């Protein structure tokens, strides 16, 4: 039920989501949440022509307005014409060039926003659009950053970028600061562009992002206070602008699939449930890039584990017909199912009763979705904040385990033996550690749902934020 506003003045929120499913979907959930909280609210979402169908389909039963911007067709020699989402980039190395290219949307966005200006209450912009700060400042519209990372990751980045930790190697463990939980980190938990701070395209772009964020009215985070309280308190005590934790937004994903609509992987999970088999869900996000050698090690580890698994993976065209993967798929037929280059409803999979574990890159959305469906995690971090999230999953939340290389590093080449052992550890439902992980994730699930319920911490925080606007 929508809450009554303390003011009769209608609220008009403009949302500018970044063109990647992992960035867009939480903001679509936020749109629904805003309508649930206030009856006198309007929401306008800006997107591009190619991304519009997905957004329109997701919000077809809401009153959200959707405005399409024209994305430049050719702005970088390595980005194919017509690519309007990072999910379709040929290489993750093109992420920053793609982000910088979105600035070409600015003139059209500025013009349209200016035409809406008398009725706009605030702009919620993805952090990857630092250029949106300019028009917000010019029109005196409060800009709120949407930051898809956790509080803990952002606190760690802030500390590690401003303090020097003297260690002999990138794998030497050190503690951050005494006032925070004693999460042991290594330099390999941090992306090189942040730990080395060398000038370059990546550093320049992230400097723009940090500068724009510092000028914003606040930061919206897809988290909840009870999940990482020490880190929320630290950020709001030591940093600005204020972080508003209003999640987990994935709890707004309530789609029910009828029998006629069930995709083949859900039907496969149904079969495993009828047989009483536990399934490991394996997925590394839409941006993950791995060598063929690493994919083979994962495959061998999964095969040797003896567990049933559903593996959703993105394969480049160059290795789609790889002989090893074809033979592997045939060998595990019945016990393992591979879903290649298709977008799946991840929450729907995690919600399935047969799924008892999630081998994940530990993107923040995936961590939250796992918590909200009470599924423990096997962390296989690849890039960005994922190594930090995997640390939190194992050492702070205690709802999972993570892979390590043969020499104990968190970054590098992960062998099949490590993967096999970690899969067995995660899926050992009756083992002492398995029981502890499942007990902890169920507790966090309950806290997450309480936070989003009326009167909960996230519910209350969103109400306070709306009242400030």
Provide structural commentary:
This protein has 469 residues and is α/β, with parallel strands linked by helices. Helices cover 41% and strands 14% of the residues. The protein contains 18 helices and 13 strands. It has helices at residues 21-37, 52-58, 95-101, 106-116, 132-138, 151-162, 192-195, 201-214, 229-238, 264-274, 292-305, 323-331, 346-351, 364-372, 386-396, 416-427, 432-452, 457-468; strands at 11-16, 41-48, 65-69, 122-126, 143-147, 218-221, 243-245, 279-283, 308-313, 336-340, 355-360, 377-379, 400-402. It has a seven-stranded parallel sheet with strand order 3-2-1-4-5-6-7. α14 (364-372) links the parallel β11 and β12 (377-379). The two termini are 21 Å apart. The mean pLDDT is 90.
What attributes does this structure have?
single chain; 469 residues; alpha/beta; Rossmann fold; 2 domains; 7-stranded parallel beta sheet; 6-stranded parallel beta sheet; 13 strands; 14% strand; globular
Which CATH architecture of the largest domain?
3-Layer(aba) Sandwich
Q: What top-tier CATH class of the largest domain fits best?
A: Alpha Beta
**Approximate helicity band:** 40-55%
Number of helices: 18
Biggest sheet strand line-up: 3-2-1-4-5-6-7
Low-confidence stretches: none
- Please give the alpha-carbon distance between the first and last residues: 21 Å
Could you tell me the radius of gyration in angstroms? 22 Å
The figure for the number of domains is 2
Structural class, please? alpha/beta
- Give the full name of the CATH homologous superfamily of the largest domain: Glycogen Phosphorylase B
Q: How confident is the prediction overall: mean pLDDT?
A: 90
The CATH topology of the largest domain turns out to be Rossmann fold
Strand percentage lies at 5-15%
Overall geometry comes to globular
Number of strands: 13
């Amino acid at each position: 039920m929508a809450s009554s506003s303390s003011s009769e003045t209608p609220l008009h929120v403009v949302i500018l989501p970044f063109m990647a499913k992992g960035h867009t979907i939480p903001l679509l959930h936020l749109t629904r949440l805003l309508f649930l909280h206030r009856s006198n609210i309007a929401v306008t979402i800006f997107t591009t022509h190619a991304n519009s169908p997905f957004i329109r389909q997701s919000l077809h039963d809401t009153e959200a307005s959707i405005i399409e911007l024209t994305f430049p067709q050719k702005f970088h020699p390595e980005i194919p014409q017509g690519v309007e989402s990072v999910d379709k980039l040929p290489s993750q190395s093109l992420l920053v060039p793609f982000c910088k290219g979105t600035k070409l949307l600015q003139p059209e966005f500025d013009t349209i926003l200016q035409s809406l200006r008398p009725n706009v209450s605030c702009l919620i912009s993805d952090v990857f659009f630092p250029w949106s700060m300019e028009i917000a400042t010019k029109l005196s519209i409060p800009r709120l950053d949407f930051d898809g990372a956790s509080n803990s990751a952002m606190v760690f980045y802030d500390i590690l970028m401003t303090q020097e930790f003297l260690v002999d190697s990138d794998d030497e463990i050190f503690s951050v600061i005494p006032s925070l939980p004693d999460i042991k980190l290594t330099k390999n938990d941090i992306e090189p562009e942040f730990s080395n701070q060398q000038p370059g395209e990546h550093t320049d772009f992230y400097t723009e992002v940090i500068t724009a964020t510092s000028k914003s009215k606040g930061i919206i985070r897809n988290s909840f206070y009870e999940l990482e309280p020490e880190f929320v308190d630290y950020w709001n005590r030591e940093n600005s602008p204020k972080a508003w934790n209003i999640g987990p937004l994935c709890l707004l994903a309530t789609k029910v699939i009828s029998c006629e609509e069930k995709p083949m992987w859900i039907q496969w999970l149904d079969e495993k449930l009828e047989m009483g088999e536990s399934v490991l869900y394996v997925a590394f996000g839409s941006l993950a890039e791995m060598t063929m050698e690493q994919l083979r090690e994962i495959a061998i580890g999964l095969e040797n584990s003896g567990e049933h698994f559903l593996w959703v993976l993105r394969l480049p065209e160059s290795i789609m017909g790889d002989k090893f993967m074809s033979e592997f798929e045939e060998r595990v037929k019945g016990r393992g199912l591979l879903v290649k280059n298709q977008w799946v409803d991840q929450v729907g999979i995690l919600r399935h009763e047969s799924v008892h574990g999630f081998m994940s890159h530990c993107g923040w959305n995936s961590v939250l979705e796992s918590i909200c469906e009470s599924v423990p995690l096997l962390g296989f971090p690849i890039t960005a904040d994922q190594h930090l999230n995997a640390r939190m999953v194992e050492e702070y939340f205690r709802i999972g385990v993570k892979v390590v290389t043969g020499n104990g590093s968190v970054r590098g080449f992960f062998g099949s033996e490590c993967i096999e052992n970690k899969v067995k550890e995660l899926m050992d439902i009756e083992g002492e550690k398995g029981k502890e992980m499942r007990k902890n994730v169920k507790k966090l699930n309950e806290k997450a749902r309480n936070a989003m319920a009326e009167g909960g911490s996230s519910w209350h925080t969103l109400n306070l934020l709306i009242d400030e606007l």
